[in-house]
Write a structure and sequence with these properties.
- The structure is a single chain.
- Strands 1, 2, 3, 4, 5, 6, 7, 8 and 9 form a nine-stranded mixed β-sheet that branches.
- The two termini are 24 Å apart.
- The protein has 156 residues and is α+β, with helices and mostly antiparallel strands.
- The protein has helices at 62-74, 124-129, 140-149; strands at residues 2-5, 11-15, 28-35, 38-44, 48-50, 53-55, 76-89, 95-107, 116-122.
- The protein has a single domain, classed as Nucleoside Triphosphate Pyrophosphohydrolase.
């Protein structure tokens, strides 16, 4: 377990052990997609550059939500999802994100009817130094997840 304080001052817990469950059921998803040496990011209208993700809708599985959110935010179709981590933020009320990795199936043309300004592809170095990162992309948890994804069972 990795514990840290996020940019908003909230205690966060991060677990890479799928058998370790938090008391809070995940209702949000976050997705890491590496393609041709670059990370898929979305450009959130308010927060800036971040990994795609969002809330699980009624009747949806975590996996369905991950696939849908990535497409809605980037117009990239993904598959082969694998669970990677659980990420709990202890704000009021607390919430949990299920973090996945996925593979690119197809990249469609981005239509501006989506909830973001589109997608961008960044190397790990560009991701660490980009001036327009979302607040959560700057915290210790994100840095830890980027380190751990290299050790993940998935072969990029």
């Amino acid at each position: 377990m990795f514990t840290f304080i996020d940019q908003n001052g909230y205690k966060c817990e991060l677990s890479f052990n799928q058998h370790h469950s938090f008391e809070i059921e995940p209702k949000h998803v976050l997705v890491f997609v590496l393609y041709k040496g670059k990370w898929l990011c979305t450009i959130n209208k308010k927060r800036g550059i971040e990994f795609p993700g969002g809330k699980v809708e009624v009747g949806e599985t975590l996996e369905d939500a991950a696939i849908r959110e990535v497409y809605e935010e980037t117009a990239v179709q993904i598959s082969d999802l694998k669970w990677f981590a659980h990420y709990v933020v202890h704000e009021t009320p607390p919430f949990c994100k299920a973090v996945f990795t996925g593979r690119v199936v197809k990249i469609d043309e981005f239509i501006h009817e989506h909830e973001t300004l589109g997608m961008t592809w960044l190397t790990t170095e560009e991701l660490a130094n980009h001036p327009s990162l979302s607040f959560y992309m700057k915290d210790d948890g994100m840095k830890k997840m980027l380190l751990e994804v290299k050790n993940h069972e998935r072969q990029w």
